[in-house]
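Comment thread on ticket #2218

A.B. wrote:
> Attaching the input chain for the structure job we discussed in standup.
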Amino acid sequence: MLKANELEEYSAKELDRLSREREEAIKAKGGLPYLGSLAVGESRILLMPKVPTDNPDKDGRPRKQFVVKKPNDEQEYAWTVNIKSPLYRDLLGFLPKSPIMLRVIRTGEGRTDTRYTVKAA
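C.D. wrote:
> Ran it. Output below, let me know if you need it in another format.
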């Protein structure tokens, strides 16, 4: 039978390990936090002048990671985009003009009906 302090020690170590693993999972390759989902409607995003890197999803589907900032926020974020999506082609078109503020208009909410329109702000 384990003593209470041994259980506490084990529990504390395990919670600490899980917390560290979660922090690593939240950060993209390169240590940037992920941008997350954009809200339906219009969002403003500053596309940074950095070459997109490979960042396949958990199922191995190819994605590229762009570096962006939110307005009035110095933090850089990783924005992962499927290379087969029209959004990817749009972002590549704006990349030579970066850093550039973009208006990203999202329509639809599900996996099948979400579309993005990208315009220079």
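A.B. wrote:
> Thanks. Noting for the ticket: The chain has a mean pLDDT of 85.
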